[in-house]
Each structure stands twice: as structure tokens, then as C-alpha cells.
Amino acid sequence: xxxxxxxxxxxxxxxxxxxxxxxxxxEYMGGAVYAMSGGSVEHNAISLNVTSALxxxxxxxxCRVFAHDVKVRLEIAGxxxxxxxxxxxxxxxxxxxxxxxxxxxxxFEVLSDSxxxxxxxxxYLSYIQIETLEEYVILSQDKMEATLFQRSTxxxxxxxxxxxxxxxxxxLDFSLKLSAIYDGVRL
Length: 187
Prior knowledge:
The structure is a single chain. This protein has four helices and 13 strands. By secondary structure, it is an alpha+beta fold. The protein has a domain at about 40-70 and about 85-180: Alpha-Beta Complex (tt1808, chain A).
């Protein structure tokens, strides 16, 4: 996330309308809009590996996988918040808006130097308040490392760092070796 902030506070409607036309994605927090920094080749490869595996696994199971361009909408302390997770899975039939999801089951964020602190703290604290979220996964892009947070373990982190380690997403009956997540990624 870039620190560049729009000086004028926007309504949710103004933000959503602006995002339809924007060349760059922006996240929205209580009226403030923040430009998102561009991703790297490694960031994209990790996201694509996860998205592809999830898409294949979830075919015909009533869940949808979204990558990069679909927002998640939250409300925290009366403020509307929109984030762009790297990968999200939604299985809730209430999620019908064409621009965002409110009820994700699983969210993945791929870290970069500029977003690590934000993804590990602010987004984590926001995401775990989503009533339907079962798992939150943080993936490093400069080393083989996955951190899994699960509602069933009261959001205690489980860190995996070995290529043969399995990232097990229980709510989706899905697992993927770290070697598959990082396939083709230069570390």
C-alpha cells in the first residue's frame, strides 16, 4: 500500500464509481483512499499458483476463487473498508455484488516489503472480524514461508517453511505443498 492518500474523503459510492475507471487500484478506509503499489513477477507467480490450484479443486463445489481485482468489503467501528486481497475464496450465497465480496471464507495475501507490516497487522486485525472467514494465509515472496491463521485455532499462527510442508485449508478440504505454491518463483 502506498502512503499516497487522496486529500478529499470519498463516500463509498464515489469510491466504487472511481474504481471502475481507475488505471490503478485503490484501497478504501473510512473515506480515505490509498493507491496500491504494483506487484512483482514473483508476487504474481505465487498468487497465480494458489489461484490455479484452488480453482481446479473447487470446481462444482459452490465456491468461487478471485484474484487481485475483486475487493473484500468490511465494516469496522462504523467505517467502511475495502481491501484488494491477492486471492480470496467466497462460498456464501449472500455474496452477489459484482464489485466486491462481504463474506469470504479464505483470504490470501502475498507479502512485499511495502505491505508486510500492513498485511501482518492491520489487515489481519480487520480480516479476523469477518463472520465467515475461516482462514487467513500470508505468503512471503522473498522466502519460502506460509503463515496460516485459522478460526478453529483462535487465529494462532502456524508457520511453514519447508518445500514438503503442506498448507492445509481445512474449511475447503484443500492442501497444497509449499513447493507448488512457490513453483517457478526465484527466492
